Amino acid sequence: MTEVQTYPTIDEAARAMARGAAYMGGGTIVMREVNAGTAAPVLVRTDDPTLRQLRAQGDTVSLGAGVTMAQILAEPQLDFLHPVARRVGGPQVRNMGTVGGNLFAAHPYGDFAVALLALGARVQLAGTSGARPVEDVLRDRARQVGLVAAIEVPRPRHGSFGFTKVSRVKPKGVSILSIAVLAPQTGGTLRGVRVALGGMGSGPLRSAAVERALDGQRLDRTTLEKAQSVASDGLQPPTDALASAWYRSEVVGVHLRRLLQSMESS
Ligand SMILES: Cc1cc2nc3c(=O)[nH]c(=O)nc-3n(C[C@H](O)[C@H](O)[C@H](O)COP(=O)(O)OP(=O)(O)OC[C@H]3O[C@@H](n4cnc5c(N)ncnc54)[C@H](O)[C@@H]3O)c2cc1C
């Protein structure tokens, strides 16, 4: 039996979590756990409107953790996130599924978290000052990190961000793998590259090998070949019902190269 407690403010919900309750956002994952009888005994939620707030202007956009994929798709100024939000589930899932929940969604979910990782997003936790790098939250998410209040996302320069998702069922199948790349260029040279992968480990991760292959280079054929050849270096992708570890390692470089080529020509 699961009890659901609803609080009027984020802070009260966060305090309830500190006492051991689990949080429910849009519930697209949690409600399945409730139905399966595996959910935490106490779930908390909040009607606090700040959780649904979205600031889309400026160099850094701010997404309340309760912002849904559908809200993102309805905001023209968040167009750089549209290719990502559009690939999360079908319409019903996008109407309910939140950006906060996506940070905690286990493989094969978490496509939006992969994009946030490449974009260098920062996460604000309720009751704390300052924001933490999203990689810290992804690393610690199996432990209780607290209630995510909002996510700050640096707006990428036009054409410098790309996302692709590989799935068996289109358009709304879950990921075999997903790839997000931030590749800003200064005078034709790549600087500050961030490459994030989903489906290539237990959760979203950055590929140090690909970042090294790209950073400081021109996006030419030699660089593309190098990036492709090191794409699975040091990674241990899972084998599951969607694909084997071997398959993921074989194709990740091909899809990475295609994504980089599409950005080169955008
Ligand atoms: C049919 C179907 C298809 C799907 N397809 C995709 C897909 O293609 N890609 C994809 O990435 N995901 C997919 N999902 C998974 C899920 O819908 C998304 O990941 C969604 O973004 C999760 O958000 P939510 O608000 O519903 O999370 P919830 O179910 O509410 O919560 C999920 C987890 O996150 C925690 N959580 C939620 N919000 C917060 C917060 N603010 N602070 C701290 N912890 C929090 C919860 O405690 C829970 O552990 C799919 C799900 C279904 C049912």
From TrEMBL:
Residues 1-158 form the FAD-binding PCMH-type domain. Keywords: FAD, Flavoprotein, Oxidoreductase. Signal peptide: none annotated. The keyword ATP-binding does not apply. SUPFAM superfamilies: CO dehydrogenase flavoprotein C-terminal domain-like, FAD-binding/transporter-associated domain-like. Pfam families: CO_deh_flav_C (PF03450), FAD_binding_5 (PF00941). The keyword Ligase does not apply. GO terms for molecular function: FAD binding; oxidoreductase activity. Gene3D superfamilies: 3.30.465.10, CO dehydrogenase flavoprotein, C-terminal domain (3.30.390.50). This is FAD binding domain-containing protein.
